[in-house]
Specification:
alpha+beta; nine-stranded mixed beta sheet; four-stranded antiparallel beta sheet
């Protein structure tokens, strides 16, 4: 009996030193294996996403548009059409029906466009240190002066005798000259390459000029300078809302559409 009990104990000791793991150790091993598999799966996923980003390159295929060519074209064209003009009022003590001259106290330059109180256009110009103005039956005048105006000239006007002239405040403005845009369109069609050389532009461009739309009234095309646009180029465009002035000193609200490539 004692031999059987000892033999059983010897077999139990032998089993404890064999290659079989206890139950608790087996559970720990399975958990460790699961963690390793999760880490490997995560690494594979990150690698897959990295490969996609490398080949697709979303930054390279973004919707970024380069407006540098359009910016340069706009700046050059606006300088080509630019005009500076001044506006001042003039009031006489009494109407002067004949051509008269007054001292150019405010230093107006260029040619003059003059409107009397009845909105009648009168001829005027700068002559030396005086302003020559074609008089009317009104006392109040509005004088526009600019180097871009060209509307004839007066000479031999008499100075005011016993009739004081009072100027208002001179205001100066910068905008685009309507007739310069018209001349640009004509040059565009007659000598496009020569126009580009004159402006110092190497790129191509299109210009459309529209009236500013009113409520329930669509904009009308006033003039355009256009050409064929190749399909392979990227065209950038911009609308400029401006109030142009013409040779009659009339303000014309327009929209200038510039396209460049």
């Amino acid at each position: 009996m004692e031999k059987r009990i000892n033999l059983f104990k010897e077999n139990e000791k032998a089993s404890s030193h064999s290659g079989f793991l206890p139950k608790n150790n087996l559970l720990k091993s399975k958990r460790s294996q699961g963690h390793i598999e999760m880490i490997i799966s995560f690494i594979v996923f990150v690698g897959f996403v990295g490969v996609l980003l490398f080949f697709l390159n979303p930054l390279e295929n973004s919707s970024y548009i380069d407006y540098a060519v359009l910016d340069i074209t706009e700046e050059v064209l606006m300088q080509d059409w630019a005009v500076e003009y001044s506006v001042v009022s003039l009031t006489l003590d009494s109407p002067e029906g004949n051509c008269f001259r007054v001292p150019n106290e405010l230093g107006l330059t260029g040619d003059l466009v003059v409107y009397d109180e009845g909105n009648n256009k009168k001829i005027g110009n700068v002559a030396g240190s005086d302003l020559y103005i074609d008089g009317s039956s009104y006392r109040h005048y509005k004088i526009y002066s600019s180097d871009s105006f060209s509307d004839g000239s007066l000479s031999g006007c008499n100075s005011l005798e016993g009739n004081n002239a009072v100027f208002g405040t001179k205001n100066t403005f910068n905008t685009v000259f309507y007739e310069d845009i018209e001349a640009f369109v004509e040059e565009y069609y007659s000598d496009y390459e020569g126009l580009k050389d004159r402006l110092g532009l190497s790129n191509d461009f299109i210009v459309n000029v529209f009236t500013q739309p009113l409520v329930d009234v669509e904009a009308d095309l006033l003039m355009n300078a256009s050409r064929f646009v190749p399909r392979v180029v990227e065209v950038t465009a911009r609308d400029l809302v401006v109030v142009a002035i013409n040779n009659d000193a009339q303000q014309i609200p327009i929209i200038i559409n510039i396209q460049a490539w």
